[in-house]
Amino acid sequence: MTKKIVLAYSGGLDTSVAIPWLIDKGYEVIAVVLDVGQGGKDLEAIQKKGLQVGAVQSIVVDGKEEFADKYVAPVIKANALYEGAYPLVSALSRPLIIDKLVDIAHENGADAIAHGSTGKGNDQVRFEAAIHALDPDLAIEAPIRDFHWSREEEIDYAKDHNVPVPIGKQSPYSIDANLWGRANEAGILEDPWNVASDDAWGMTVAPEEAPDEATLLDLTFEKGLPVALNGEKMTLANLIVKLNKIAGENGIGRIDKIENRLVGIKSREVYEAPAAAVIMAAHKDLEDLTLERDVAHYKPLLEQKVTDLIYNALWITPLFDALQAFIDHTQAVVNGTVKMKLYKGQAVAIARQSEENSLYNKNLATYTAADSFDQVAAGGFIKLWSLPSMVFEQVNHVHSVEKK
């Protein structure tokens, strides 16, 4: 009996040559493309190519709304930026891809799942950790990693097995994109001293070429998530698409970073995340207005842990669920509107309001005659605040100045 395998298929060289290789190994291949808003690709053509090179089924799954609502949303609430910069573009789509692939494997009685990751990257871990968590009985095939294929060997194998290889100049880059942004590596980017050339960017204009007049826009949040742009309500996925265009035209969201990969090597990555840059800045600004002081100071500690869990393929863990429950609870009060100024690569919050949850009290903050703060109470508060250290010094004289 022929075994069935579900392949995470992108239509690129790696996953295209994987199809005849898996067939040679005795599998019937079900190729699955997940649409997470990668844009710029003819998914129908990719679907047909999967059948052309030997897959018994080639499926395109529309996952854009689910990707936004279940995977991007937690990142927004957590202000999640890996190593302070990377908005977890690729890391977010992997658990969703595997979730869909496992479902399709179960529906079709498949025995295994395959992916086209190499042995140097993070994706192999993200794919396989999710497979092990969701169904450890499924076998895993990773031909590109396990057989150490070079690019030249892949092309030769493709020609021998009638797999179409693009003619002409191929992009030197390895690019992964979705709604939340675009990740780019390889080519001249492998030397960190090389300046990223113009062709390395695909979603943004150079900041110096952006309009000379600033763009102002209002982002409205409910429970920590953007729900309206300039007063127009829309789904999170559609809002991200629209904001990617507006922010990209203003040169916003470019990131050029040396990052520490999960597997332990350093990698030079070039990212573009226009919508993410604007949304994250606005969200944090609204939190500053609505979160109580101790919550605002403690939440970043957990945010860093959540970010590391996502990056390190630990999305499906009890700890992630527990931390996310805490973060979700904090977001109940993050409601309001932030006015953002977009100008030549910068996204800055310039005004904000929250009618129901603002903790800013003008009468307490003002230095005018309208001041309602009890100045007299401050002296007593300071005595009580410093009481523990005062008593300690009286007993131990660690820092006390000797009286003359």
TrEMBL record:
Q: Binding of L-citrulline: at which residues?
A: 86, 122, 126, 174, 259, 271
According to its UniProt entry, the protein's GO biological process terms are: argininosuccinate metabolic process; L-arginine biosynthetic process; urea cycle
Q: Which SUPFAM superfamilies is this protein grouped with? A: Adenine nucleotide alpha hydrolases-like (SSF52402), Argininosuccinate synthetase, C-terminal domain (SSF69864)
Q: Does the keyword Ligase apply?
A: yes
Stored InterPro entries: Arginosuc_syn_C, Arginosuc_syn_N, Arginosuc_synth, Arginosuc_synth_CS, Arginosuc_synth_type_1_subfam, AS_cat/multimer_dom_body, Rossmann-like_a/b/a_fold
Positions annotated to bind L-aspartate: 118, 122-123
Q: Tell whether Cytoplasm is among the UniProt keywords.
A: yes
Q: Give all residue intervals belonging to the Arginosuccinate synthase-like N-terminal domain.
A: 4-164
* Catalytic activity reported: L-citrulline + L-aspartate + ATP = 2-(N(omega)-L-arginino)succinate + AMP + diphosphate + H(+)
Q: Which GO terms describe its molecular function?
A: argininosuccinate synthase activity; ATP binding
Name its pathway. Answer: Amino-acid biosynthesis; L-arginine biosynthesis; L-arginine from L-ornithine and carbamoyl phosphate: step 2/3
Provide the Arginosuccinate synthase C-terminal domain boundaries: 173-391
Enzyme Commission (EC) number? 6.3.4.5
A Gene Ontology CC term for this entry? cytoplasm
Q: What residue intervals traverse the membrane?
A: none
Localization annotation: Cytoplasm
Enumerate the UniProt keywords alphabetically: Amino-acid biosynthesis, Arginine biosynthesis, ATP-binding, Cytoplasm, Ligase, Nucleotide-binding
The family this protein is said to belong to:
Belongs to the argininosuccinate synthase family. Type 1 subfamily.
Quaternary context: Homotetramer.
Instruction: Tell me the HAMAP family matching this sequence.
Output: Arg_succ_synth_type1 (MF_00005)
Instruction: State the protein's name.
Output: Argininosuccinate synthase
